[in-house]
Amino acid sequence: MDACNAAALDVRAEWAESYPEPYIRASNTGRSRRLAGFGPNRHSLSMRDWVGRIRTAGIVLLIVAGCTPRSEPGAPEPNAPTVQQAAQGAETDSSETAEGPDSLYVRVEPILLDRAAAEPRPVPILPAGLAWSPAEPEEGSAFGIRILQPASGQRVTGVEGWIADRPLHFALLADRWFAMASVPVGTSGTEILRVTATYADGSQMDQELTIRSRSREFASRPLSVAPRFSSPPPETQARIARERKRVRALLADVTSEWLLEKNFEPPRPIQITSPFGQRRVFNGELSSRHWGLDLSGQTGAPIVAAGRGRVRLAENLYFAGNAVYVDHGSGVFTAYFHLSEFDVREGEVVEAGQLLGRGGDTGRVTGAHLHWSAYVAGQPLDASSFLAIQVPGR
After folding, report:
1. What is the CA radius of gyration of the chain?
2. Cα torsion for 357, 361, 362, 366, to the nearest 10°?
3. What is the DSSP letter of 124?
4. Which CA distances in Å does 100 have to 3, 4, 68, 81, 92?
5. pLDDT tens per residue across span 89-123
6. Burial 90-109 (b: 16+ CB within 10 A, else e)
7. pLDDT tens profile 337-374
């Protein structure tokens, strides 16, 4: 075998090694095939810069390498088989080149196939896994919902969900879509969880499951406070209405960022003096619900953030006294009432365990303590239920 034919075989072997099955098939006829995309003809011993751009469309890439006698520039190559000949398995006739100074030729020709037949099989769409904890949440509590990526097939790139008519706001954490959900006071029994998962190719899949929640008994308690808090004077009514409107708008503002970096922790040692949801009668005149969890604490006791978040409000409110609202993202808030002083400002990002202020007795109180509130999508919930939620990857 002459040097040129040996070189031609080396070229075929190099390509076969660089692009092994199922992508390249090389034979002694000089034929190599690859399902790839559109592109210009190339006359090069290396396809690496081209192959990366032509992986998926429906063509066969035909590579012909062989020897032909040297000729004048522009003259045809007598021994080079045509694309049609090569496709039919024609061999290069090298007998005429055994005596003369041969040159190596390489021809790369794309041949269009039936696109429908050549398209790769689509990656399947499989249902995502759903899990929530606790399995049977309690009235007035929060719980976590996790959407697990399918073991194979396309990845889930977005999730929307609802429980009854309450929207869920999912965030991607540690490769799992996670949302905190609520069972509002007055809700128990069965409800439908609806989830719409969006996949990488834009397709969607709906799933529905039934969630069962347990009812809860809430006690009543009479309390004595300063008369101005049980029957606010007319001059304070406008302030009270303005503050309530502002807080409702704040809690309805769902941000896309998820700031929590680990599970929630208590803002001070847990010693409950008044439970969540308690019915209250102030001075025998005003009935209300206690939408928080009261923890014991003297004036000046340190109050820390239950989790990483952004301070959205830090000011004095008529009933709550000195109050701090922390936005943890995706519609999840915690709030801290009756502080004697502030150690943070609005807009500041605080870390879990960071000092927010000091315990006190500002606002409508019977004595110094911390009123700790928790909210999901505007729903007031028992803050102690936040402590049981496992945040993915945290």
Report:
1. 36
2. 150
3. P
4. 11, 10, 9, 19, 16
5. 333 333 333 334 444 444 544 544 445 544 556 77
6. eebebeebeeeebebbbbbb
7. 999 999 999 999 999 999 999 999 999 888 999 999 99
